[in-house]
User: Fold these one by one.
Assistant:
Number 1:
Amino acid sequence: MAEPGVTSSNPIRDVCDYELLFDCVHCGLCAEACPTYVVTRCEMDSPRGRIYLMKSLAEGRIDLDDDAARHLDLCLGCRGCETACPSGVHYGRLIEGARSFVERNHRRGVLDRLKRHAVSAIFPYPNRLRALLAPLKLVDHVGLRPALRAIMPPIARDWLDLLPPLQANLRLLAKAPTATSRADAPAVVVHHGCVAQVLADSENVNSERLLAAAGYRIVQLESTSCCGALDLHSGNAARARDFARANVRALKKSGADAIVSGASGCSVAIAEYGDLLKDEPEFAEDARAASSKVRDLSSLLLDAPLKPKREFRCRITYHDACHLAHGLGVREAPRRLLASIPGVTIIEMPESDLCCGSAGSYNLTEPTMARDLACRKADNIVATGADYVVLANPGCEFQIAAELRHRRSKIEVVHLADFLAMASQ
Ligand code: SF4
Ligand code: SF4
């Protein structure tokens, strides 16, 4: 119920889509699916608590103080609560609105602002990230990362630890079989992302090669912009819309019948362009068309399964990336693909769909909670005794690999496209 004098069309503050708040019946069935609640056991760090908080803010019953902003900041935007919710609450839309409200109305501490500014200024722009990483590539090449790490301030050290060794990606690059498709085959475009094209491009290349081997015709984008997910998750909807418009134009021009991304967060962002640009007559129709074409790699490959030339004997466990499982509802297709490889044994880990703490740039801005979740994920992975963790999102890959490196574990973390490429040699 709204407060007296506050109607569904007339909240006091523009916090989020106010009417959507009333879909929540406060049953609490989402709580155990929420990673932050599972860690803190604090009601205000649960989906229900945050919904209550958004409503209280909208109705002017509380002010946006440090404490309120903190509970909203701590949300990973993983959407585990959407999967668990029997009432169909669109939590993702609610938290995106609330984040924008926090950005507009709350002044954070200096360090927090600096971190967020750095993420926003660098990560969506591949050339800036490449330039920043160029000296580090040299450092890795001569094996001096531990020495560099030792002289860095703690916050820079935390960020450095999340960065994969900058040479390692080459090991997997371009291993999938190559093939030439028929001119009348369905056209697929792989969106190479922003961070992914710098740090995990083997996943893009191997996705294209696997799709071509499966009979699809690969088309390229004339230009690739960030999908806008980083901005949406940090409350900068205006720039997210700028990126979305650029992508909608390029995707339309590509003539693709299907759009794939190796990063599930990007897939979901594109799948929601129709909603993001719905009030822009010039883009609304093309945005809806782009959204309707989003597919995930494994579902497309299942239509034309790989035929590996040999056994690939190993034990793997599969981690469900949040946006793939909770955003696109894809869980079975990657498992079926992996199970079809001769020699592969899949061992399910507990809580496979509980967020690993990566969550876009969350592990950079909320390192404590992110690390707690990475530890929990690594415990579950190690308990399976697997040789490989396979997943379909580069952010999860970096986050989980960092924790396993820290434990000196021999378990390898591999993106689905790279794993399929290795297995189909
Ligand atoms: S999006 Fe994830 S972290 Fe946020 S409330 Fe929902 S389940 Fe919890
Ligand atoms: S978000 Fe859904 S599951 Fe959670 S309390 Fe509200 S209605 Fe219940």
Number 2:
Amino acid sequence: MHQIRVPQIRIRQVNHQPLNSSGRYVLYWMIAARRTGWNFALQRAVEQSLELNRPLVILETLSCDYPYASDRLHRFILDGMADNCKALTGKPVRYYPFISRGKEDDRGLLAAFAKSSCLVVTDDAPAFITPKLIEAAAKILSVPVEAVDGNGLLPMRLAEKVYPTAYAFRRFLQKHLPLFLCTPPRPDPLAGAELLAPPTLDPHIIERWPEADCATLNAPSTLARLPIDHNVQTISLTGGADAAHCRMGDFIRNKLVRYAALRNHPDQEATSGLSPYLHFGHISTHIIFTAISDWEGWTPDRLGHKSAGQRAGWWGMSENAEAFLDQLVTWRELGFNRCVFEAHDAGYQSLPEWARNTLQSHTIDPRPYLYSLPQFASGQTHDPLWNAAQNQLRTEGMIHNYLRMLWGKKILEWSPTPQAALQTMVELNDRYALDGRDPNSYSGILWCLGRYDRPWGPARPIFGSVRYMSSENTRRKLRLTNYLQRYE
Ligand SMILES: Cc1cc2nc3c(=O)[nH]c(=O)nc-3n(C[C@H](O)[C@H](O)[C@H](O)COP(=O)(O)OP(=O)(O)OC[C@H]3O[C@@H](n4cnc5c(N)ncnc54)[C@H](O)[C@@H]3O)c2cc1C
């Protein structure tokens, strides 16, 4: 079988342990790219299994003691695990879904699985708790740990530095992307792979950490007995790869045609709604890019030759597809770029110097309104539009992109300091947003405070030269009638 292999630049050796040549299998520890197709880490695990002539075990874990673990997040992840169960049934791998039933219930689980493995392959992801999880695993395990980057079209470690603006990053993308568009992950890494029959697992593992039952994975009773936040409730959106693919198809067929003109109007519902699926790894950017290219009848020879960082025209696609790809690729991968090279979260120090200076010099400005975290959380400000956005976040786990910007700007205006505003935004977004705890959560929030932006004049109270947004203007500019009716 001759296949293009996972590019080396996507594979990070996290420790330097020797290969365990007496290991009985290759272990893929699925923690971020929670899907079976278009998955570089799974593809790498298959490559290693074939090369070492060992069967493959896939361990997908769901812990309950990470910050913000709630019914909402768990349900979405469990939907994905149910899809993975279905997709891997009858395949030549041993899929082992595990749900922690109590704090620290999973302690020792990975080590027990890894003990009989030749090496561990896992997903690389640069934000929230995942980097720490990977580092901790690499420290305690006595087998090699490889973290594989399937996050974006461009390998995230290619850049070697942090880009300060979307324009500068776009130029970099335009220069390097053509090479990497030719090496997408395989749609089905298991197809045609002649893997050895799945191994039997150590009975001690099965007894101590019982496998989740695929049939009841996403039943309501599964959530009820877990020690997670039951106040952040489930929403009607189904998680998982199947739902993600349906949503992508619907977007391309019915909404893409209006994307450039109407994406900012909440009433028009012209965006994809794919961010939660991207966040939980239920869908890959590569399949979205491929589906859009197919829809457009696009071929790589249409790519522009000049990498001048221009927002439109470089891809050689329709205006709508280009506008969408600028979000999906430039803006999304810009967030990953910051998290890889600067910080895994939203540190205030990430703001450019001009923004910190201007915000600092306006810290003493009087605030016409000041709200506490509980007031913000329950949407009890004087501003009905802001409250509507927060209600959408609290009840549906999402805010429309344009209103998300306004939401953040107003938190800055109504908080005692910019540092307090940053904390409030992160707390609310990470707790309630399905797509929160993501590199784009932190880049979006930092954008509200000046990151990736430039100074704007004239200087205003509280904001200084950080870009200002007003609810009155937003109401004038956007179509919001239905939105307000629904969430006010
Ligand atoms: C204060 C604030 C907080 C944010 N928090 C998050 C978050 O927690 N998680 C998150 O994924 N995005 C976040 N964003 C970015 C953006 O709002 C969402 O990605 C977008 O609204 C998701 O909706 P969609 O999938 O319909 O986007 P679409 O318009 O359909 O875009 C497709 C994809 O492109 C990416 N994308 C779109 N807009 C942006 C953007 N401005 N920056 C980076 N990537 C983008 C997303 O992955 C999105 O799914 C935040 C923005 C702000 C201003």
